[in-house]
Each structure stands twice: as C-alpha cells, then as structure tokens.
Design a protein that fits this description.
The chain has 125 residues and is an alpha+beta fold. It is 30% helix and 12% strand. It contains four helices and four strands. A two-stranded antiparallel sheet has the order 1-2. Strands 3-4 form a two-stranded antiparallel sheet. The chain is globular and about 50 Å long.
Length: 125
C-alpha cells in the first residue's frame, strides 16, 4: 500500500468500501454499497503548476493531472501517456477543447467540448 498516495486510494461515497487502488475501482465499477468511488484525498498541486501547466498541450496536462490519482504501480507512466495520447488522437482539432471568444471586452469565452468521436462532451473525460 505504500506505493500509493492518499489521492491514489479510493473510497465509496456511501462508506462501504475504502483503500482501493485505481485498478481495483476500475474493475469494480460501482462500489458494493452502490456508491461511487472518489479519491481518499485531493492532492496538493506541484509548485509553479500555473506556469508549467499553462504551456502544456491537452494530453500533457491530462497526464500530469491523472498522475496525481493513478499510481505508477497501477499504470506505468509510459503506458498512461500512450493511453492518453490514443484517447485524444481522434479529436478533430489539435487543441482537443478549443475556446472561442464571444465578447473580448467582457472576457466571455465558450469552451467547445464536441470535437471528439461522438460529438459529445463525454468524449473529453
């Protein structure tokens, strides 16, 4: 269990299951008490995350965030990168979720979540 941080251990929203790895939660789907799984802890972000993450591609950013919740013993980092890259490779735009400016003065922007295979926001997650 020491290979997992608290944010890489999962518990049920109904309290019947706890301490599960990412792999265990994926294989179970729903908790035995019919609850949903969530991380045992929300991790702290790395120092300077705003500067370094702002320059990353969507896939690179996804890797950094997923790595906070998935231990290398559950999915090896190289494999996780490959899974992420393959998941977003079929999007019709390189940015995956581009923004469109609706009103520059009022700083109103629209995030487009429909560029995946099924044209639905669920393709992003």
């Amino acid at each position: 269990m020491s290979s997992h941080t608290s944010s890489q251990r999962y518990l049920s929203t109904r309290g019947g299951s706890y301490g599960l790895s990412f792999e265990e939660t994926i294989l179970k789907g729903l908790a035995t008490d019919q609850g949903l799984f969530l991380p045992g802890e929300i991790p702290s972000l790395p120092l300077n995350w705003q500067e370094s993450w702002a320059r990353m591609s969507f896939s690179e950013l996804a890797f950094e965030i997923f790595s906070l919740y998935i231990a290398p013993s559950d999915i090896e980092p190289r494999a996780l990168r490959r899974i992420i890259d393959q998941s977003y490779s079929k999007f019709r735009v390189p940015d995956v979720t581009p923004t469109v400016t609706l009103n520059r003065d009022k700083k109103i922007h629209l995030l487009e979540l429909y560029h995946g295979e099924t044209f639905a926001f669920k393709d992003v997650v």
